[in-house]
Amino acid sequence: MMADPSNATRPRLSAILSGWTPQLVLVPTLVAALVYVVIFSLWTIWISVSKSTLLPNMAYGGFGEYAALWQSKRWIVSYQNLFLFGTLYVVGSLVTGTLLAILIDQRVRFESVWRTIFLYPLAISFIVTGTVWRWIFHPQTGVEKALHDIGWLSAQFDWITDRDMALYVVIFTGIWHSSGFAMALILAGLRSVDADLIKAAQIDGASMPRTYRKVVLPTIWPIFVAVTVVLLQFAIKTYDLVVALTQGGPGVATTVPAIVVYDLMFQRGQIAQGAAAAVMILVALALVLVPYAIWSGIRAKREAAHHG
Amino acid sequence: MADTTHQSFDPLATGSRARQTRSRSIVYLLLGLFALLYLSPLVIIFMNAFRPLEEIVREGFISLPNMLSATYWVEAWSTFCIGGTCEGVSRYFSNTLLMTVPATILSTAIGLVNGYALSKWRFKGDTWVFGLITLGVFMPAQMTLLPWAFVLGKIGLSNTIAGLVLVHTVQGISFTTLFCRNYFLAVPDDLIKAARIDGAGFWRIFRRIMLPLSPPILIVCVIWQFTGIWNEFLFGTVFTSGSNQPITSAIVAFSGSGTGERHYNVEAASVIFAALPPLFIYVIGGKYFVRGLTSGAVK
C-alpha cells in the first residue's frame, strides 16, 4: 500500500481487493496448512533418507535407515505391540461402548448423569489417566496391596511389572479412556434409528437383545466404521498414555512406535532413523484413512444419486 | 423424560410385568457397576490427596483414610519440588494456561472466519483449499517434530510458551475450520444472497449474520481446543524444557522418575490440579463436548 504511486488508483485497488476478500482471508491459513501438511511432511521424509545423525545433515544417504529400523528388535516389538494394542483397544472400546449405549437407551432415569460419568475420562489427559492407573495397577500401591491388607496375603496382581501382561494394562486403560467416546457416537446412532422399524420387530415377537442384534445395530453399521477409524487413529498415535503408564516397559514390553520415534530423535541422536520411524507412522495412518476416505466418498456419491 | 423424539420406543416394555422389573434391575445393576469402574480412579486419587504419606505407603492407595489433611494441596500448589525448582505445580499450571488460552482464542477466531469464507463464498478450487486444511487434522505429530524444532529455533521461539501457542494454533486451525465450515453450510445461502444484494460485503455479513448465528459452534470449538491443548504432552516435552514446560510434562517429570522419595499425596493433588480445568469445562459444557465429538469424528 505504501508503494502505491498515485492516489487515483487507490480506490480501484481497494475495490479489487474487496472482491477478493474471501480468498485473501484464507491466504494465511492456506500458507500455514501448506507448510504444516506438505512442506513439513516432505521435510521429514527427506530427513529420513538423509545422512543426519545427531545433527541434521541434508545430504542424501539412501534408504539405509529404513532397513536398519526394520532390523531393530525394539521397532519390531513396538509394531507388534501396536497390532495387538490397536486390535484389542478398538474392539474393547466398541464392545463396551455399544453395551453402555444400549443400557442407556433403555429409557433409564438420569440419563445425562450416566452419560457424563462414562464420558468424563475423555476430558482428562492421557498423562493424568496413565499416572492414576499406574498407582492402581502397581503392586506396591494399588490393587495387590489392598488385597493383602484385607487379609488375602497370597493375592497377586502385578501385570504392570510383568513383561507378558503389561500390554494388557495399557489396553485396559485405553479402553477405560475411550469407550465413552464410542458410547456417545453409538447412542446418537441408536437414537437416529427409525422407531417404526423397531416396533415392527417387536410386534413380530423379537426379544430386546434380539431386536438390537438383528435390527438396530445392523442399521447403524456406518457409525461403527467411523468410530473404528477414529479409534485406530488414536491407537497409531498412542504415546502419552504409555509414557505415563509404563514408560514402554518393563524392558520394551509396552513400547509403541511413537515412543521409538521420540527416543531415536531426541534421546539417541539418530534423527534420520527417527524420521524414518515417523514416516512409518504416517504410512500406517494412511493405510487406515485413505480407504476410509475413498469409501465415504463413494457412499456420499451414491446417496446423492439416490436422493437426486 | 425430555427426550420426546424417542417416546414411541421402549425396548424393555415387552413381556410380562415381572420380566420387565427383572430386566430393568439388570440394566441399573450393570450401569452401576460400570459407573463404579469409571469413577473409582477419580475417587481414589481425590481421597489420597488428603492422606498422610506414611499412611499411603503403609496401606496403599486403595484404602479408607484415617486422617485427613488439606496441607498437601497447598504444598502441591506452591512448594512441591519438580525437576529442580520448588515452586509447586502453580508454575506449570500457569504455563499451560498461558499456552492454552491464546492458542484456543486464536485458532477459534481464525477457524470461524475460514469456515465462513469456505462455506458462503464459494470460489474455484475452494474444495482443494478445504481439503488441504483438513488434512492437518490427521497429521501425526511425529512428522512435524523436527521441522517445528527447526522453525521455532529460527524465529527465536525455542523453549518459549509463545512457540507452543504457535504450534497449537497452526494445528488447531485445521479442527476449527472443519467444525465451522460444516456448521455454516447449514445456514441458508439465500440469507447471504439477500444481504449481498443490499450491498453488504464480506465482513458486514460476517458481523451481522454469521456471528450472531455462531455461538453453538464457537462453544464447540472452544471446548475442543481448550481440552485438547490443555491435555497435550508431546509438543510441550519436545519444544520446551525445565520451568517452561506445561503441566503434563511436569507430572511425567515427578511421577516418572524412579529415583528419590515419593510424595504420593502431593503428587495426587498435583495430578488433580492438572485434570481440573478440562474436567470443569467438560461438566459445564458437556452437551457441546459431545456435539464436537460427533461432528469431528464422523465428518
From TrEMBL, chain A:
CDD domains, per the entry:
TM_PBP2
Taken from the UniProt entry, a GO cellular component term is: plasma membrane
InterPro entries tied to this protein: ABC_transporter_permease (IPR051393), MetI-like (IPR000515), MetI-like_sf (IPR035906)
Which BP terms from GO are recorded? Answer: transmembrane transport
Q: What keywords are annotated for this sequence in UniProt?
A: Cell membrane, Membrane, Transmembrane, Transmembrane helix, Transport
Q: Does the keyword Lyase apply?
A: no
Q: Which residues cross the membrane?
A: 24-49, 82-104, 116-136, 165-190, 215-236, 274-295
Its subcellular locations are:
Cell membrane
- Write the protein's name: ABC transporter permease subunit
Q: What is the lineage of its organism?
A: Bacteria, Pseudomonadati, Pseudomonadota, Alphaproteobacteria, Rhodobacterales
From TrEMBL, chain B:
One annotated GO biological process: transmembrane transport
Quote the cellular component terms of the Gene Ontology held in the record: plasma membrane
Does the record carry Signal as a key word?
no
Q: What is its main location?
A: membrane
Q: Where is the ABC transmembrane type-1 domain?
A: 93-285
Transmembrane parts of this sequence: 26-50, 97-117, 129-149, 161-184, 205-226, 268-290
Top-level taxon of the source organism:
Bacteria
Output the CDD domains linked to this UniProt entry: TM_PBP2 (cd06261)
Keywords per UniProt: Membrane, Transmembrane, Transmembrane helix, Transport
The signal peptide here is: none
Q: How does the entry describe its membrane topology?
A: Multi-pass membrane protein
Write out the annotated subcellular location: Cell membrane
Family that this chain belongs to: Belongs to the binding-protein-dependent transport system permease family.
PANTHER family per UniProt: ABC TRANSPORTER PERMEASE PROTEIN, GLUCOSE IMPORT SYSTEM PERMEASE PROTEIN GLCU
Q: Which protein, by its recorded name, is this?
A: ABC transporter permease subunit
Organism this protein belongs to: Oceanomicrobium pacificus
Taxonomy-wise, where does this protein's organism fall, top ranks first? Bacteria, Pseudomonadati, Pseudomonadota, Alphaproteobacteria, Rhodobacterales
